[in-house]
Design goal:
By secondary structure, this protein is an alpha/beta fold. It has eight helices and eight strands; from the N terminus they run H-E-E-E-H-H-H-H-E-E-E-H-E-E-H-H. The longest helix has 16 residues. The structure holds zinc ion.
């Protein structure tokens, strides 16, 4: 007797998920094709490009094997961004809950380390939690799937270097000086925002010149709400 090897209720494919969500968001429009790829991304969990009626989807291998509902959440978050719409809160929550599961975080941590990360002090300081602030800033200013780099505080409270982004290790380090009871949160927000812009804007090389703060970087920096106040506060420190 022949045993059936494919289940009659076989799971929807990744292409199918993106096709269906796209169709819902565009009120019935259909894509010619979805090109789905898995990449060793660590800075983002996924990216989309719409070329005509072909949707190119690239997803990090860290999430490619997640349950179907999580991949659907990913589809909603990415496609809503494409349509400039707010992603449904329950999908965002579902995605975050999955990413916050202990075993998922552990796996990601291990993969990052094997891809050449250094150990950084945890995001939680005495007064400020950089992980929380990162989430707030990402939701307000950046891509919804922007992956968290390593976040930490410097060992010594440097005055001249309040924050830096370490490309080699994909880590944002803030000066321990900022983790104090008299430091306004807006000041910490601003420094972290600036460093997050380094994730978004890669260094430009023109000939032998290396530009870290490009024009596009500076333009984005001006979008920070309370920029003037934040800069004033930092002078007072
Ligand atoms: Zn900078």
């Amino acid at each position: 007797m022949q045993v059936q090897t494919t289940l009659p209720w076989a799971e929807e494919t990744n292409e199918g998920i993106f096709q269906r969500v796209y169709c819902e968001l565009s009120r019935g429009r259909k894509l010619a094709r979805v090109d789905f790829r898995v990449k060793p991304y660590v800075n983002t969990m996924g990216k989309l490009h719409l070329r005509g009626d072909v949707l190119e989807v690239a997803v990090s291998d860290l999430i490619a094997g997640a349950p179907a509902t999580v991949r659907e959440a990913l589809a909603w978050i990415l496609l809503c961004k494409l349509f400039r719409r707010k992603a449904p809160a329950h999908w965002v929550l579902h995605y975050r809950q999955f990413m916050n599961r202990r075993e998922v975080r552990r796996t990601h941590q291990a993969v990052r380390q094997s891809r050449g990360r250094k150990y950084v002090s945890g995001p939680r300081g005495e007064y400020f939690d950089l992980g929380e602030i990162f989430d707030q800033l990402r939701d307000k200013y950046f891509e919804p799937l922007m992956a968290k780099p390593q976040l930490g505080w410097s060992r010594r409270p440097s005055r001249w270097l309040l924050g830096h982004f370490d490309h080699a290790h994909n880590a944002i380090i803030l000066s321990k000086l900022l983790d104090g009871p008299d430091v306004p949160k807006l000041a910490v927000d601003y420094i972290l925002y600036h460093e997050m812009l380094h994730l978004k804007h890669p260094v430009e090389h023109r000939g032998s010149r290396r530009r870290v703060h490009t024009t596009a970087f500076r333009e984005d920096e001006r979008l920070f709400e309370g920029l003037k106040e934040a800069k004033e506060m930092l002078k007072q420190l």
